[in-house]
Every structure is written in C-alpha cells, then in structure tokens.
Amino acid sequence: MSKCQIIRPVVDLLDQPEGARQRQLIWGEQVTVKDKQGGWAQIVAAKDGYPGYVPSAALAAAVQTTHWVSAVATHVYTRPDFKSPDLHSLSFGSQVQLLSQGERFSETPDGFIPTPHLSPLELHLKDPVAVAELFLGTPYLWGGNSRLGIDCSGLVQASLLACGLPCPGDSGPQERALGNYAPPNGGNYRRGDLLFWKGHVALVRDCETLVHANAFHMAVALEPLQPAIDRILAQGDGAVTAHKRLL
C-alpha cells in the first residue's frame, strides 16, 4: 500500500472500475492505494475511510499540503496575475502546498492561487451552517462533493470537516456517528442541528429554516423547516428518522 493524493480538481470515486459514482474526491485529498490494475487504483480516502476506485492518472505521490481552499471556489493561474491564463478551478476544501505566500497571490507547485482564498490547514471554521451557506445555489449532484455539484451528505461532510469535526461520507453512517444528543419531542430546533430521513440529511439554519442539498430544488437551498418536513413526507420519502445535536 502507498500514500497518494488527488491531482484533479474533482474525481469520481467509483464502486468498481468503470462503475457507478459513490462519492467524489477533490484536489489534494490524501488516499491510501491498495492496488493498481489496468489504469485503475483501488483506494481508501483518508478523510473518512471511504473505499472505491479512481483512475490511476488522477493520483500522484503524496506531498505535505500546507493550506486549504476556504473560498467556495478559486482558480489556479499560470502567473501571479488575475489576467494570466487559469489552469484549474478548485473547490472549497481542496488542499495545496504553498511554496511562497504573497499579499495577493501564493505560489504552489501547480500555479498561483489568490492568497485571500487560502487558509492554513490547522485553521478551522466555527459554524458548519455558515459553511453550508457558501454552497447555496450549487447544483445537486448525487454523490457530489464539490462546488460543481454536491448532494446532501456531501454538503454536511464539507461543512463539518471545515470546522474540524470528523464526518462520514454518506447520510446513513452520518446518522449513526454524529451527535450524542437528540432533542426531545421532535422540536427545540437550534442552528447546527442535523435532521435525518432515510437517505437524506439537512442542517438546521434556525428554528424555522433548513439548508440542504436536495433533488426537489436540484440545488443547495434554504427551505422553511416544517414545510420541508411535510413535503418530504407527502412525496413518499418518510418521516424524520433522527434529530441530532453536535456538542
């Protein structure tokens, strides 16, 4: 087994070579490679232990990353000049190695990134809901994990990881792993609470509003809390299965 990292802005994590997307990995994410055959690598993601397959060409030997993209998205430029050609678009959470840091641009081995879009790896945000709100309007994509497209559990994971909180990749494991307190009587909603349904998860923005990536809006959207609960029940997707609070 070897340690590698993702060198594409976004890559699908498949259940088998040429198979179905289960999740996605983004630039700089660390993985353990278990096997390589026929242009495919069998890997396990370091952030959450998610297994799957990615093209071998999407990997390079792991290096020590120093910063992460804390803007919802950014560009990598050929020169420290916003008019120079852009090489890549990176999503929130991507990890990079800085060679030098300037007031406006920072140099990486792959080009120059606007310095205000970067934060040191050790810097964590404080409010998962504020992170989720960065993604408002992002298209819904089943299994998505980036600003280009994201699903409900991908949004929750990105929001919690940015705040230094471990988080599985799928809503089922999230329901089992997250929160050691369940508010009583299906009420008492507080900012940052998590509501779970079978196959879905949402963040409570305030006592009257959810923020979630959902297939009804086909985007990350704000939705009135109780009408959302009623809508999901009416469309046949069931009642809330858990209300969790992170302490």
Sum up the structure in keywords.
247 residues; SH3 type barrels; single chain; endopeptidase fold (from Nostoc punctiforme); five-stranded antiparallel β-sheet; 39% strand; mainly beta; 14% helix; 3 domains; globular
Describe the structure.
This protein has 247 residues and is mainly beta. The protein has three domains: 60 residues, SH3 type barrels, CATH 2.30.30.40; 54 residues, SH3 type barrels; 117 residues, endopeptidase domain like (from Nostoc punctiforme) (endopeptidase fold (from Nostoc punctiforme)). The protein is built from four helices and 22 strands. A five-stranded antiparallel beta sheet has the order 6-5-4-1-7, with no helix packed on it. Helix 1 crosses helix 2.
Which oligomerization state do the chains in this entry correspond to?
Answer: single chain
Number of strands: 22
| Biggest sheet descriptor | 5 strands, antiparallel
The share of residues in extended strands comes to 35-45%
Give the SSE layout.
Elements: E1 2-6, E2 10-14, E3 21-26, E4 30-37, E5 40-45, E6 51-55, E7 59-61, E8 67-69, E9 73-77, E10 86-91, E11 95-96, E12 100-101, E13 105-108, E14 111-114, E15 118-120, H1 128-134, E16 145-146, E17 149-150, H2 152-162, H3 171-177, E18 194-197, E19 200-206, E20 209-214, E21 219-224, H4 225-234, E22 242-244
Antiparallel strand pairs: 1-4, 1-7, 2-3, 4-5, 5-6, 8-11, 8-15, 9-10, 12-13, 13-14, 16-17, 18-19, 18-22, 19-20, 20-21
